[in-house]
Fold these 4 entries.
Entry 1:
Amino acid sequence: MMRGAFDDAPLTALFPLLTPADVDSLNQAARMVDTARAGGTTADWEWALEHAAFPGTQLGTPIVLGLDVIEHAEGGDQLEFLLQVVWTDPSQLAVDAAVNVACWCETDHATHDVDALRIVAGEETSLPDAFRAGAERLTGWLADPHGADHWRAKAGLPPRRIN
């Protein structure tokens, strides 16, 4: 995976069918996310040119382009915000957005998605429209409280154990 500012991502190599207007739409949505981040710092986006074409069956989800904002708190707690363009099968891309928290259940599940959105790009929704919707959802989450306990309570998960 390559990392950098969204402007560094080779969008037309990752998504060869994008028009100039589509590229502009993706750039606008990414700027909206960068602006919503705490401190307004530019995010480190990740992309995989080897996933521009469907990479075939593999372990995990083939991520083409994504952002993973992780916030750590003392005591090992974690809150994570995701926005990713992924392959769902050989012909379909989807935009996934999620908020997840560290697990404090009796059985360690590692993390839990406490809110998630998946929009498959296709005949009804273009990739730029799906990306914008995911970015809008992410910016809404970033405006909410940034404590993992807030999100855990919202999802009905066990509270963080204090050691």
Note: The CA atoms of residues 15 and 52 lie 6 Å apart.
Entry 2:
Amino acid sequence: MPLDELIVKSDEKWIKFRIQLTLGILIIYSIICLILTVAEHESLKTFIGYFLIISPLFPIGLWRWWNEGRTIIIDKKGCLIKFLFYKKYFLWNELNVRQMRPKIGLWEYEGVVFSAHAYDRPEDSSNCDYYMLKHPFTCFVVNFSGKHRPIMYGQALPVVIDGEICSIDKERFINKMEEWNVKLETVRKVNEKDSYIEK
């Protein structure tokens, strides 16, 4: 890796789990829809209708795969976002939101939210998932390694995934931002109810 760039991406263990989970949900939904269609002696159009009715969570799975599967290449001019065949480069002056946060999403990572939206900023709350879902192609996050609560799935039989999501060493990242004169907003906790104000 060149010294003048940072590469941020989820580790292989996490990506493998996310792909398996997303495809597993798709397969289960498809089987259920197929059974319903065959039982009713209906057509492909009915199969698609069933699929759309009973699979509201599948798009969220795809979004999480997109959000967590991207590679972010950061240099002194901006950030390149890559995912499969998709590529988009943002210059620093196009990223109007560059906000450090003590908690970002579901796993409460500490990190930085980047967005190209000047007049629509993340709310002062601990979780930015809704904001990232609202702006999937112009918003992304850089998480700090080890700065999150354990990643667990399931209640009765919990599964713990020892993986990192789009993360990088905090000190290394901050040092590069300072070296490249990239200014970051900060937010700080003002009470125990996860309320934040700009510092």
Note: The longest helix spans residues 12-39.
Entry 3:
Amino acid sequence: MNSIEFGKKCRPYNIQYRDIFGYVPCRDDYTCSQDEYFDALLKAIETKCELSTIVPKKNKDFQDTNKRY
């Protein structure tokens, strides 16, 4: 599935997640596939626990001044 289809599939759940937690999570911040992310998003909404407790976040090192984000 391409990113546009995935975004359309996640849109209604992102809105529900935002209403609960106050922000919309970004799939690129987590170490999982699209399918794992979508399943975790549904579980996070159902259990009302943040996505980072279900799927680990990527470790980003912002100390490297040569890398552009």
Note: Residues 18 and 24 are 5 Å apart (CA to CA).
Entry 4:
Amino acid sequence: MRWSLELIPLHYRALAAGICAYLLWPFAHAPQWQWQALWQSEAETAAALAPLMSFYTKYGEPALPALNAQLELNKLRDLELSLIAANADFADQVRDDTWAEATEFMIAHVAQNVGANELRIYDSECRNNLCRIELAAPKGLNPEFRALVLKYAATLKAGDLEFHDLKEGKDRIMLELKSDKRLQYGYFEERALKPAAREQWLAEVKAWLGTQQHNKK
């Protein structure tokens, strides 16, 4: 006789599914650091768990939700730091159109009003938080022209652009400026940085910190 799942009565199948779901439920909600311990070596696991166990020993079971929430927030911080590092160079950046267009307009406007039109811009381009300005330097970067460029950069600083780099060519210089604006990322990167649970994690950490402040009084 050929065995088939359909031969098992429906209520038995439902009961078996319920038992499996009950047994697997704790694993589905386990913090990621518990899952990571499954494929880490014993030494790696011990090193990673040492500060967590110290925290748990000090504050006990009530602190676990806040601890897990902070670990998840730390992962978001590490992800953003890695994205910032990946966008450190001008060539690696995509363009933040709204900010870039407004900043390029400011760059051109300031150049016209610094040094009585002595600055000539060959090209300027802004991307995510970096701008490159190619300036004519027919006499090279002599002291007079250097002073003019420094005055230009100082004026742009008022528009949230800090000096980042300067490269001298034969008859031109490349001035690179950096803004402290938050980088704009693609759709999937933004979703990864701002998951739906982020607000809950922040609330759990804030609530626990509030409890600790109250206990100190």
Note: The two ends are 74 Å apart (CA to CA).
